[in-house]
Design a protein that fits this description.
heterodimer; A: about 120 residues; mainly alpha; Helix Hairpins; 3 helices; elongated; B: about 525 residues; two-stranded antiparallel ribbon; 21 helices; 2 strands
């Protein structure tokens, strides 16, 4: 399972980078969404995957489990990361909407007045 | 309980202040009071934390009572405590400055709550001893900074923010992936635990992970070749926000590099730290050359941030040579820490001065400025001291910061990097002299519609703006003239950093069942 997931993660990263490098602002956001999903899947895969062994212990058990169970921590990490990424990406979507309203074109190459040395206001 | 609770307060106080400010959404006056009280409390408890850490050694607090490495642990060593004090100083001075400059538009849209959240994120990043928690604090800090950056909604701010948000998100995702890989290798998120495991293992995967952390933090610190978001965005928000960003945000990246590359990644220093060393050298020179080409007050200052980050990276990179004597390593790290502290104070102060100049003459463009020395000599003096300190002239704080780093560089026999550092110092002086010549020394610009304001006496608001500037100017003079106790402090902090075992023992890993790293190998699916 892990080698397959590694390829999926790699493909997601590649797609994300490709989208971020496009000129369109909308595609930039799509790239960021893909990037955060790629990172989450990478955590999930790197921490080790285990089929059919949910992270549950029998009721009343006080000893550490002898049989291997799935690690619940990466799942908690991903959940946190998804929530954070959701908030940040919601902000990014609003930001590009406002930027689009002000600049008027869906083209990142137009967003370069702050890099020019001419005077600002 | 005491003094452990002190470690929590620098995070808890700004969070509370932010929540109270949101409750008082409709009352700017109440938000201002909470702003001043909250940041004063942050500064006061930061200083108490530093004193306690100095007396008792590293203080740790286990969140919710879960023992390390299973729960999240907050750790205050001397470096963390010092950085928290700096957060308090920045918070306090910038809030005072904001009283006169924020304006109703900003206050009505949550300026103060965002400010407090930013402080909480920064303090949390300084104190946490858990890598995933570090990521969370980075995000808290970033979201607050995103919102502060676009408050006001001018075109330049939107453009700057698109770049700032994108590149910082990419950096966060690299950090998150690196955290995932670290967890995959070690099975722990606790920095002390990871450091202990990595000490015993020599595996190429560790260097790969180290490089991912380095790229993530170097983007946040604004190091060559990853700094391009910084000059595009830092000069766009109101000057109080720029000052806070300039003082704190990039330094969090620098702090994280110092923490990770002294505590965790010390196996392959010849590879990792040499990259830091040379990245530092090139960062210095590109930053200062970029600034030399600019003619706008705030842009010169923001590009200089990059150049100053170079000195910090250089100090850390000096650990690269494996046979470096302990005293030299200590001097390098202490110099780097002193440099961070000096730079936070001076850089913020210069931004604040640029805000006063803008208030008087209505422009940041050097060619539209002038006559300040003649008509407002006091303001000129405040700029002069900070500018010379930034350039590194004795007896100000910048001189001792540069002196320590360069002396360590000479003793480590990194001649080329030292040449870079010295040339950068000279060019910094050139940029500062350029601002001085155009904005302060030259005759008043008669074609500027606001030129009559030069001759009027300062109003009450301007004196509110002067207060933090005077405080920070005194700080840079004291750090220079009476620098010895402060340098002793950074030397002690460096000693702690260079001995990871102190940190590991302080966190305490008595519940860890020893197992060699081969056992951690994931078993894979069926």
């Amino acid at each position: 399972m892990e080698p397959l997931m590694a390829f999926v993660v790699g493909a997601l990263f590649a797609a994300a980078v490709y989208m971020i490098l496009r000129r369109s602002i909308v595609k930039l956001v799509i790239g960021l969404i893909l990037l955060s999903n790629a990172a989450n899947l990478a955590i999930f895969t790197a921490a080790g995957m285990r089929e059919g062994a949910p992270p549950l212990i029998p009721a009343g058990s006080t000893e550490p489990m002898v049989t291997p169970v799935a690690d619940p921590l990466p799942q908690a990490l991903i959940l946190t990361a998804i929530v954070i990424a959701f908030g940040v990406l919601a902000f990014a979507v609003v930001l590009i909407h406002r930027a689009y309203e002000i600049v008027g074109v869906d083209d990142l190459d137009e967003l370069r007045t702050t890099d020019l040395t001419k005077e600002l206001d | 309980m005491f003094p452990e609770i002190l470690v929590l307060l620098p995070v808890f106080l700004p969070m509370t202040a932010a929540a109270l400010s949101v409750v008082m959404w409709r009352s700017p006056l109440a938000q201002r009071v909470i702003g001043v009280v909250g940041t004063t409390a942050l500064l006061a408890f930061g200083i108490i934390l530093l004193l306690q850490t100095w007396e008792n050694g590293i203080i740790t607090m286990e969140m919710s009572g879960f023992a390390a490495p299973f729960g999240i642990v907050l750790v205050s060593d001397l470096l963390s405590a010092m950085m928290v004090v700096m957060t308090g100083i920045m918070g306090f001075t910038v809030v005072i400055y904001s009283l006169a400059t924020a304006g109703e538009d900003y206050e009505r849209f949550g300026y103060y709550p965002l400010m407090h959240l930013l402080h909480a994120g920064v303090a949390g990043a300084f104190l946490t001893g858990d890598i995933f928690n570090l990521y969370v604090w980075f995000e808290v800090m970033l979201v607050a900074s995103f919102a502060l950056l676009i408050l006001g909604g001018k075109r330049a701010q939107m453009e700057g923010a698109v770049k700032y948000v994108t590149i910082n998100l990419v950096s966060s995702m690299i950090l998150l992936t690196a955290i995932g890989l670290t967890y995959g290798v070690v099975g722990s998120l606790n920095m002390a635990h990871i450091a202990e495991v990595f000490q015993e293992v020599d595996s190429p995967i560790i260097t790969v992970i180290a490089m991912m952390y380095m790229v993530a933090f170097a983007i946040k610190a604004g190091s060559f070749p990853l700094f391009f978001w910084l000059p595009a965005s830092y000069h766009t928000p109101p000057v109080a926000v720029s000052a806070l960003f300039a003082g704190l945000l990039t330094k969090v990246g620098a702090y994280a590099l110092f923490r990770f590359f002294t505590l965790i990644f010390t196996q392959d220093v010849e590879f990792t730290h040499n990259i830091l060393l040379w990245a530092g050298a090139i960062t210095m020179i590109t930053g200062v050359l970029g600034a030399a080409a600019q003619f706008e007050f705030r842009r010169i200052l923001s590009i200089h941030i990059i150049s100053q980050i170079g000195y910090m990276l250089m100090a850390l990179g000096l650990l690269a040579s494996p046979d470096i004597p302990d005293e030299v390593a200590q001097l390098a790290i202490a110099g780097g820490i002193f440099y961070i502290i000096h730079n936070i104070i001076v850089k913020t102060n210069l931004f604040l001065v640029s805000g006063v100049v803008y208030r008087v003459l209505g422009s940041y463009h050097l060619k539209k400025l002038g006559g300040i020395y003649r008509h407002k000599p006091f303001l000129a003096l405040l700029f002069f001291i900070s500018a010379l300190s930034l350039a590194g002239l004795p007896p100000l704080s910048g001189f001792f910061a540069k002196f320590a780093v360069i002396r360590a560089g000479l003793e480590a026999m990194e001649w080329y990097v030292v040449v870079f550092a010295l040339v950068t110092g000279l060019l910094t002086l050139y940029s500062m002299v350029k601002i001085w010549m155009y904005a302060f020394w030259s005759p008043a610009p008669e074609d500027n519609p606001q030129v009559h304001k030069l001759k009027e006496p300062d109003d009450a608001d301007t004196w509110v703006m002067y207060t933090p500037i005077i405080l920070l100017t005194i700080a840079t003079v004291v750090l220079g003239v009476y620098g010895e106790p402060f340098f002793e402090l950074t030397l002690a902090a460096a000693e702690q950093l260079l001995d990871p075992q102190v940190y590991i023992d302080a966190v305490g890993l008595e519940y860890v069942i020893d197992h060699p790293i081969e056992d951690i190998e994931p078993t894979g699916g069926q």
